[in-house]
Structure formats: structure tokens, C-alpha cells
Specification:
Layout: H1 11-14, E1 19-27, H2 29-33, H3 38-51, E2 54-56, E3 60-63, H4 73-83, E4 89-92, H5 102-114, E5 118-121, H6 130-163, E6 176-179, E7 188-191, H7 193-208, H8 213-222, H9 236-243, E8 251-254, E9 257-260, E10 278-281, E11 288-291, H10 299-314, E12 330-332, E13 339-344, E14 347-352, H11 354-358, E15 370-371, H12 372-388, H13 390-406, H14 408-438, H15 444-473, H16 478-492, H17 501-511, E16 512-518, E17 521-528, E18 534-537, E19 542-545, E20 551-552
Length: 553
């Protein structure tokens, strides 16, 4: 424990004077629907304040934040102010207000106590002995087990209802409103005629007017039609979801998706409200089909739209039919967005993808489009000059090799240091396990907290070690690369000006990694393929690369 931290106050001595109390309140969105509101918790705490000598420092509230998350604005502010010695006692109505899982609850409790405050729940008296603490922990474990059992039963019940052809609830698709079940009628969908009209229009525009999903979204936004969430700005993803939802053709699907944590969460300074904010498609065998009495669109129109969606995916701008020499290689130097090909007044251009990424909101990048013929010819001429003067390229590579060689000893020393540190962490983990097995006073929560910290430190060391090893593997074998450059020069340079477009494209794909455009400047990042990946087509005498690892320079 930190020596500067204040020792936890004994509850009995605290009650003899006015103490600074921090009431913590939390509900998640699902719990609000069950009327476990912030107001009811606050009322219970105010009633308890009248009986106790409490001085409320402030109210710490996490409204709409899941108890599965460790990072929440209210609890973070609470912990900071405990460290500043503004709070002596943290009170809650129930332990699950602090966290949903028993283990996370104990971690929060220990953290609060280590920082100098106590924790109290209105639903149970503070434990005064080890036996009472053990009984409270068992109660918490049983409560968590019971909640998981109820959750499993609820999910099983929903699956049984869906298999019987009944609607279970959940988020209603655009155009429908879910009617809760009653004693006499099961749950069902009610049509919203105004939205049904726009669903029919979306399918008609896409199938018969030839509009893309993005063009449909733009038309709906211009017409100020409200989205399912009530927003007048439509996104192409929302339109695509409607076009692929079979409920409009008369079949609703239950158990189609599962909620999962985001694999690549966006960098943000804000707080997430839920743990599982992304979804993934389940295997089609797990889907449960529920027929509707009356479909919105006929099956022929639905099939036509699905065929067109598949065809458009193959013929999308990402698979353009126009001859772009640098397709999928041009990057905007201002915002780092990939550039895509576009046609303006019959002229092919490369345009920053920021506009598509931000749609329907305004673009945030000021980069102008670039003539495709100008950029293609500039990059090709630069590539030809490089291949026609191999000594110049080899000279630049020698400079890179000298810089890397001068740093080699430092990297090796750092790698050895990290390996020693990793061994120390492994020994510390082993000693901690021996201590836990021999010391009856160490609780599982204390052990888990300390071993988690060691494992996190080990992971950080492993990442640093792997990064240095990757850097060391990139050391240039100059003699081998000289052979590769001279090989390319001998077999390709003499015919560079006689190649057709497809042959040039092969050379570009082989040697160019990225083309970064910044204003009127162009930066070309190239790759030198290892000799074993280069094959010569005798009929064309053109270098072709296989899909094997390539050595970047």
C-alpha cells in the first residue's frame, strides 16, 4: 500500500462525527426499463442520510453505463477525489451498482480502501469480522451465479418462442413498431405506414432507377426523411441494412446477430456506455425464421435487389473498370485517407476518400483531386529513372544500411535488457503463487490483482521485444539487394518505354508500395522484391511478383 495513503477509517469511529460521504448511483439502459431509476436510488440514500451523521460531498452518477465496464465517468471522478482526501465513505444501495461481476466489485472495493475510504451498501450491514466478510462474499458469488442462470433461462425461453413463430421483441426494423404481448395476444409488429412508404421507395429507387445505396441515402437526406433513429441524415450503411433485411419480403429472422466487443474500437477520449457495442453475424444455421402475415415488397423485387447488390459489390469503385495505373496505392498526404478513382468531365482523377468516409456530413480534408494521367506518368517516369540508374538507388540503400548498422549494438543491448526483465517477471509470478499457497491471509482477489499487474507488465515487455526483433530482421542484405536491382535493370529497363498498360501495372504492383500526394508534391514508397519472388515471362520479358513477403526499404 502507498505509504502516503490515509489508513481506512473504522466505521464505528466515523459514525461519531460528521463524515464526508460520496453516494454512488448507477443504472444501465436495460435496467431503466425495469424502473430501477436513479431517482429511486437517490431517495433511499437521502432517507438513510436523515438517520446518519452524513455530509454529502457530491453525487457521483453513472446514468446509462453498463456495470460490466471498469471505466466510467462517475466512478473515475469518485476515485480521484478519494485520492484527494475529499471523501471518507462511499455508499450505494446494492453491491451490483458498483459492478455487475463479483470479481470486479472486489477489485473496486480494494482500490477504494487502499486509497483511504470505506465502502458501505444499504442492503447489507458492513462486515465486522472475517466470517461476516466471507458470508458477504459468498452472497455476492451466489447472486452472480443466479443472475447468469436467469439470463440463460431468459435466452432459452426467447429461442423457444421464436421457434414457435412468435415475435420476441428487441429493436424493431424500420417501418415497424413492436407491440408488447398481453394476456390475450402475443407480441407482434405493427406497420408504420409513413415509413413503409419510404421502404417501398428505397427498393424501387435501387432496383429500377439504378441508384446506388449512397445515392439513395443522399436523396432521402435531401428530402428530410427521418432515419430509424430520428436523424434527417441518412448513411449508405442504413440503406444497405434495409435492402438486405428479409423482413420486408415477409420473413423476420431471430438470433441472426450476437453482440460482441468491438475488435477495432475507434480512438476516443470519451467513455463507452456498453461493453458489447459491435455485432457479428451468426452462422445461418442458427437463424430462426418467423413469417409475417403480409410482406411489404414482393419476392421478385427482393430477389432482384439481392442480385443487384451482389453484382454491384463486384463492380464497385474498388474494382474499377477504368485504367488507373496506381489503383489502391494513392494516399492523401493531408488526412491519410486512401484515394479512389473518379471521372470528372471525361477526365480520370484520383480523389481523397475523406468525402465518402465522412458522408453524409461535410468532408474535413481540403485536398484537391489529382489528374490520373499526370500522376500516373509522373510516378512511372520516376520509376523508370530509378531502374535506369541502379547505382543511384544502391547508393541510397548504402546510407540506410550505415544508419541501421550504427544502431545495431543499441538494439541488441536493449533486447538483452528486456529478456532479463522478462525472466524477473516470470520469477516474481512464481514467487507470488508460492506465497498465495502458503499464506492463508492472502485473499483470491489480492492474488488475482497482483498477478494481473505482473502479466500486464509481461505483455508490455513482450511487445517491446517483438518490435525490436522486427526492426533487427529488417537489416538490409546489401549484396543480395544489389543483385535484385541489377537483375531488374537487365531484364526490364531496356523495355520500359515499350510496355503496354497491363505490363506497366505489373511493374508498379511489384515495386510501388504507396504513392502519397501532398499538394503538388509526390512521395513514392517502394519495395524491392526478393529475387526468389521474381519470375520472367519469356514471351513478354516482364517481371511478375508472387504473393510472398517482400522486403521494404
Amino acid at each position: 500500500m502507498n505509504e502516503n495513503a490515509r489508513k481506512p477509517h473504522d466505521l464505528k469511529s466515523i459514525q461519531e462525527r460528521a463524515i464526508r460521504v460520496a453516494p454512488y448511483l448507477r443504472v444501465s439502459t436495460k435496467e431503466q426499463q425495469k424502473e430501477k431509476t436513479i431517482e429511486s436510488q437517490k431517495q433511499r440514500l437521502l432517507e438513510e442520510k436523515e438517520k446518519r451523521n452524513w455530509l454529502i460531498a457530491d453525487w457521483y452518477i453513472d446514468d446509462g453505463y453498463s456495470g460490466e465496464l471498469k471505466s466510467r465517468p462517475g466512478i473515475d471522478r469518485l476515485v480521484r477525489e478519494i485520492e484527494e482526501r475529499k471523501i471518507e465513505l462511499v455508499v450505494m444501495t446494492e453491491p451490483d451498482r458498483l459492478a455487475r461481476g463479483f470479481l470486479v466489485q472486489k477489485i473496486f472495493e480494494e482500490d477504494i480502501k487502499e486509497k483511504g475510504a470505506q465502502v458501505e451498501y444499504l442492503s447489507m450491514p458492513p462486515p465486522r469480522t472475517e466470517d461476516e466478510q466471507l458470508a458477504q462474499d459468498i452472497h455476492g458469488l451466489l447472486g452472480g451465479w443466479e443472475r447468469s442462470k436467469i439470463k440463460r433461462r431468459t435466452m432459452t425461453g426467447k429461442l423457444i418462442k421464436a421457434k414457435a413463430g412468435l415475435f420476441v421483441g428487441g429493436k424493431s426494423p424500420y417501418g415497424f413498431r413492436y407491440l408488447e404481448k398481453t394476456r390475450k395476444t402475443p407480441g407482434s409488429y405493427e406497420r408504420i405506414e409513413e415509413q413503409i412508404h419510404w421502404v417501398k421507395e428505397i427498393f424501387r429507387w435501387y432496383a429500377w432507377e439504378g441508384l446506388s445505396a449512397e445515392a439513395v441515402a443522399k436523396r432521402l437526406s435531401n428530402m428530410m426523411v427521418l432515419t430509424p433513429s430520428g436523424n434527417p441524415l441518412w448513411r449508405s450503411s442504413t440503406v444497405h441494412y434495409i435492402l438486405t433485411n428479409e423482413v420486408y419480403a415477409g420473413i423476420a429472422h431471430y438470433n441472426r446477430h450476437r453482440a460482441v466487443p468491438p475488435k477495432n474500437p475507434r480512438a476516443s477520449t470519451g467513455y463507452r456506455r456498453l461493453k458489447n457495442t459491435s455485432s457479428e453475424m451468426r452462422d445461418e444455421k442458427e437463424w430462426i425464421a418467423i413469417p409475417l402475415e403480409k410482406p411489404i415488397i414482393d419476392r421478385d423485387l427482393w430477389d432482384r435487389v439481392q442480385v443487384k447488390l451482389r453484382r454491384n459489390a463486384k463492380a464497385s469503385p474498388r474494382n474499377t473498370c477504368h485504367p488507373y495505373l496506381l489503383r489502391a496505392k494513392v494516399v492523401c498526404g493531408l488526412c491519410q485517407s486512401p484515394c479512389y478513382g473518379s471521372v470528372s468531365r471525361s477526365i480520370l482523377r484520383y480523389q481523397c476518400g475523406n468525402r465518402h468516409r465522412m458522408f453524409p456530413e461535410p468532408k474535413t480534408c481540403s485536398a484537391r483531386s489529382v489528374s490520373a494521367s499526370t500522376l500516373d506518368s509522373t510516378v512511372w517516369e520516376s520509376l523508370c529513372q530509378t531502374l535506369s540508374h541502379p547505382d543511384r538507388l544502391i547508393g541510397e540503400l548504402r546510407k540506410v544500411q550505415e544508419e541501421r548498422t550504427s544502431k545495431g549494438d543499441f538494439r541488441r543491448q536493449e533486447l538483452n535488457r528486456l529478456e532479463r526483465e522478462l525472466k524477473r517477471k516470470k520469477k516474481a509470478e512464481e514467487r507470488l503463487l508460492d506465497l498465495y499457497l502458503s499464506d492463508e491471509h492472502m485473499t483470491p482477489e489480492q492474488y488475482n490483482g497482483r498477478v494481473d499487474r505482473i502479466r500486464i507488465e509481461k505483455q508490455e515487455i513482450e511487445r517491446e521485444k517483438q518490435q525490436i526483433e522486427r526492426q533487427m530482421r529488417k537489416t538490409i542484405n546489401l549484396e543480395e539487394i544489389e543483385k535484385q536491382i541489377k537483375f531488374l535493370y537487365a531484364h526490364v529497363s531496356s523495355r520500359l518505354n515499350m510496355l503496354n498498360f497491363d505490363e506497366k501495372k505489373r511493374i508498379v504492383d511489384l515495386l510501388v508500395d504507396r504513392v502519397i500526394v501532398i499538394g503538388n508534391g509526390v512521395k513514392i514508397e517502394g519495395i524491392i522484391p526478393p529475387l526468389r519472388n521474381i519470375k520472367i515471362n519469356r514471351s513478354e520479358n516482364v517481371a511478375i511478383a508472387s504473393q510472398l513477403p517482400q522486403e521494404s526499404v
